[in-house]
Amino acid sequence: xxxxxxxxxxxxxxxxxxxxxxxxxxxxxxxxxxxxxxxxxxxxxxxxxxxxxxxxxxxxxxxxxxxxxxxxxxxxxxxxxxxxxxxxxxxxxxxxxxxxxxxxxxxxxxxxxxxxxxxxxxxxxxxxxxxxxxxxxxxxxxxxxxxxxxxxxxxxxxxxxxxxxxxxxxxxxxxxxxxxxxxxxxxxxxxxxxxxxxxxxxxxxxxxxxxxxxxxxxxxxxxxxxxxxxxxxxxxxxxxxxxxxxxxxxxxxxxxxxxxxxxxxxxxxxxxxxxxxxxxxxxxxxxxxxxxxxxxxxxxxxxxxxxxxxxxxxxxxxxxxxxxxxxxxxxxxxxxxxxxxxxxxxxxxxxxxxxxxxxxxxxxxxxxxxxxxxxxxxxxxxxxxxxxxxxxxxxxxxxxxxxxxxxxxxxxxxxxxxxxxxxxxxxxxxxxxxxxxxxxxxxxxxxxxxxxxxxxxxxxxxxxxxxxxxxxxxxxxxxxxxxxxxxxxxxxxxxxxxxxxxxxxxxxxxxxxxxxxxxxxxxxxxxxxxxxxxxxxxxxxxxxxxxxxxxxxxxxxxxxxxxxxxxxxxxxxxxxxxxxxxxxxxxxxxxxxxxxxxxxxxxxxxxxxxxxxxxxx
Length: 617
Prior knowledge:
Layout: E1 53-58, E2 62-68, E3 71-75, E4 84-89, E5 94-97, H1 106-111, E6 118-121, H2 127-130, E7 138-142, H3 145-153, H4 157-160, E8 191-193, E9 198-200, E10 205-210, E11 219-223, E12 228-232, E13 239-241, H5 249-260, E14 268-271, E15 278-279, H6 282-294, E16 301-303, E17 306-311, E18 314-319, H7 320-327, E19 335-342, H8 345-355, E20 359-363, E21 367-373, E22 376-382, E23 397-401, H9 405-414, E24 424-425, E25 431-437, E26 443-449, H10 456-461, E27 486-493, H11 496-507, E28 511-514, E29 518-524, E30 527-533, E31 547-552, H12 556-565, E32 570-577, E33 580-588, E34 594-600, H13 607-616
Parallel strand pairs: 5-6, 6-7, 7-8, 12-14, 13-18, 19-22, 23-26, 27-30, 31-34
Antiparallel strand pairs: 1-2, 2-3, 3-4, 4-5, 9-10, 10-11, 11-12, 14-15, 16-17, 17-18, 19-31, 20-21, 21-22, 23-27, 24-25, 25-26, 28-29, 29-30, 32-33, 33-34
C-alpha cells in the first residue's frame, strides 16, 4: 500500500472530485479521506488558470475564462466539486455544456457573456452537472432510460445539504443564494440525442459521442472546428469515479478506447471538473491505468474497501470488490456457440432442422441459433449481415460427439448427404467417426471418443451430461434414438503450444485429450475447443476464416475487463443495440479466430434460448 506522498497524483499539483448522487454522499456520513482530503482547497489557485485569459468573476461564485474563440469555461472554485461548465458560441445559437451545482445563477452569468439563444447540452445526469438546467428552455440529453429516470426524480432540499456543509465550501455562498429552498426540479429534456448526432449552432457544431461508464448517460461533445472534446466526467484531472453504484467499468473501458480511436480529431479535453484545458494524450494513459489496476500491477491506498490508485495527472477511485471479483477467478461460461456464414441462409436452416434435427431456439431473421447439446449451440448467419463472408476459407470443423456413431452414419448416408469418406476407427487416436459437408461446404464431423486412457479425462468431464435427442414436435427425419452428447469446435494453428497456452492462461481451459497433433480443451460443460496442427489436420491455416467462436456468459462485463487487462486485441468493444438484444464483445485468439462473448438480454426474442440456458444451468 502506498502512503499519500507516494501516490502518482501529487496533492500539490491539484486534487478535485465530485460527489455522486447516491448513498456514499448521504447527509451525516463522513466522506472517506481518499475521496475528500482535508483542506482540499490548499492547492488553489490551480496553476492552469494563470495561463488562461480571465473574463471576470460573476456573483462572487463563477470565475469565467476564455479558452478559445467563442469558448468560455465557467468555473465554480469555491465548492468541493470545482464544477466546470462551458459556453460554446455559434453564429445562430450558443450551447451551454452542463450547468454546474445550481448554487450560483448560471443563466445570469451566461447572459452577461452572450445575447444568443442558449441550448443546454448535458454530459450526464449527476447533480453537479444538471442543477442549473431548469433555468433554461431547451435541454439536450442522451436518450438513456436510466439517466432520464435520475433527471425526472430531481433532488429535494435535504438531499443537497451535504454539498454546502463543512469542508465542502471554503468561501462564502453567493449573497442571493437561499440554502433552505435549494432544490433541483425534475428535468425533462426537450431533445433526446443518440450517439453520432450533431448539434448545429450555426457555423459551429457539437457531435454527440456516447461514452457510458462513469454513468449510464455520459456523453462527450466533440467540437471539430476548435478541436476540443468536452468530456464531462469521463475524464478530469482528479480521482476518476469508478466506485459509485451507477458506474459500469466495462463500459468505461470501452468508451475510453472509443475516444482514443478519435484522438486525431481533437487536441484538448475540457473536463467537468478542476482543469478546463487538458492535453488529449492523457486518454491512452487512462486505458493503461485500468489495465494495471485489473492486472494487479499497481499499488494503492485503501480505506473501508475503497481504493485509490495513483497515476500521472489523475487517480482512480474504485472498490476493492470490483477489482477482486474480476481478478479472483475465471468467470463462468454457460455454453459454447459457433457461428457459420451463408449465402443461402434458408437452405442452411432446412438442412440443420430437417436433416440434423437441431432445435431452433432463437431467430433474429438474419441469424438463427440452434441447440446442439446441453451447453453448445450453432448459429447460422446471413453473410450480408455478419462479421464474415461465406467466401472466406471455412477453417473450422464442427464435431458432434455421440454414442450412436454408427446409427448417425447409416442415417446420413440414407439421406445422401455428401461425405468425405466412410466411417472408420482412427489410426492415430482413439476415436471412431466420419465427416460430412453441410450445404455450403462446412465440415461436420461425427465422432465417438472410445474407451481408452487417452480419453479418460474427457469422459470424466462429461459424467452427468445427458445426450440431447430431437425435440418433441420438431419437423425432422432424424431418428428419435440418435443423440448428441458434446460438441468440439476444431480450429487450425501453426503453433499448437502457443494456442494451448493461450486458452489455458486466458480462459482457464483444461487439457482433456492430447492426441499429439491435436488437443481438446474445456470450455463449457458439454462444449469444447479443439486445437489442431494445421499440417496434420483437415484444414490448413488461413488468415481469414468464415467462423466466429462465441461463449455465452452472464459475466460478459467481467470477461471484457479481464481480457482487456491482459492486452488482448478488441475487434469490437463491449456494447449492445436495440436491434440485437445481446451485450457482447469480440476479441481475437493467436491465429486470428474471432472470439465473441455474449450475454443474451431479457427480451422476448431471447426467451427460448434463455429458458434452455437456465434449465441446463
